[in-house]
Specification:
- The protein has 244 residues and is an alpha/beta fold.
- The protein has one domain: Carbamate kinase (3-Layer(aba) Sandwich), CATH 3.40.1160.
- It contains eight helices and eleven strands.
- Strands 4-3-5-2-1-6-10-11-9 form a nine-stranded mixed β-sheet, with helices on both faces. Strands 7-8 form a two-stranded antiparallel sheet.
- It is globular.
Length: 244
């Protein structure tokens, strides 16, 4: 094997990529920026073509978030259901961008909207992954009061993913907000207990606890850093790794 071939050997066979809705906005104030979503899909395509099986959980914060100011005064469960529907919209946009990039993608929703997307069925999702299709899991867990981070931890556990990759706008977990504190330091690695005790906002506590209990590592990285996803998948040091 040539050195450059060894460098692109994937470390993981099956991954769960968590994308925030905000990541799809690019520099826009809200909604979906077409150029941004196409860039994200290009990063995913490189990894798919290495025969890595990818499930994606997408957020909805670019359209509606149940805990956002816009939901103030609204019944929390109602607001959360609206947020779940926003994730379905994002999932459809992601599926369309993947189709245009030549990727085979299926959307499964935790809420039944069968005229638009398939319902989430675990066995079918696993079969799709084994067939090399990208599976986008929409509508969170299907229940209010749970975040899409928790949905990512849950789906990753259910389909047997080896790692959760949390794609953000920042290239890892820092001691403080690097945009406000120039002295902020990036953690290369953390344990789940350290992340929870230091309240580092890697994911919400429910998601972190589930990943810890399932011994499912989490890597936080920037989806906007070129080839960062590829580097994580091939086992290079990128972002922040949270582990047991």
């Amino acid at each position: 094997m040539k050195p450059h071939e060894a460098a692109v050997t994937p470390k993981y066979k099956r991954i769960l990529l968590k994308l925030s809705g905000e990541a799809l906005m690019g520099d826009d104030a809200y909604g979906i920026n077409r150029q941004t979503i196409e860039t994200i899909v290009q990063e995913i395509a490189v990894v798919v073509r290495m025969s890595v099986e990818i499930g994606v959980v997408i957020g909805g914060g670019n359209i509606f978030r149940g805990v956002a100011p816009g939901a103030a005064g609204m019944d929390r469960a109602t607001a959360d259901y609206m947020g779940m529907l926003a994730t379905v919209m994002n999932a459809l946009a992601l599926q369309d961008a993947m189709r245009r990039a030549g990727l085979d993608c299926r959307v499964q929703s935790a809420l039944n909207i069968e005229q638009v997307v398939e319902p989430y069925i675990r066995g079918k999702a696993i079969r799709y992954l084994e067939e090399g299709k990208v599976v986008v899991f929409a509508a969170g867990t299907g229940n209010p009061f749970f975040t899409t981070d928790t949905a990512a931890a849950l789906r990753a556990s259910e389909v047997g993913a080896e790692i959760v990759l949390k794609a953000t706008k920042v290239d890892g977990v820092y001691t403080a907000d690097p945009r406000k504190d120039p002295a902020a330091r990036r953690y290369q690695q953390l344990t789940f207990d350290e992340a929870i005790q230091r309240n580092l906002k890697v994911m919400d506590a429910t998601a972190l606890t589930l990943c810890r209990d399932q011994k499912l590592p989490v890597n936080v990285f920037s989806i906007f850093k070129k080839d960062a996803l590829l580097r994580v998948v091939t086992g290079e040091e990128e972002g922040t790794l949270v582990h047991v």
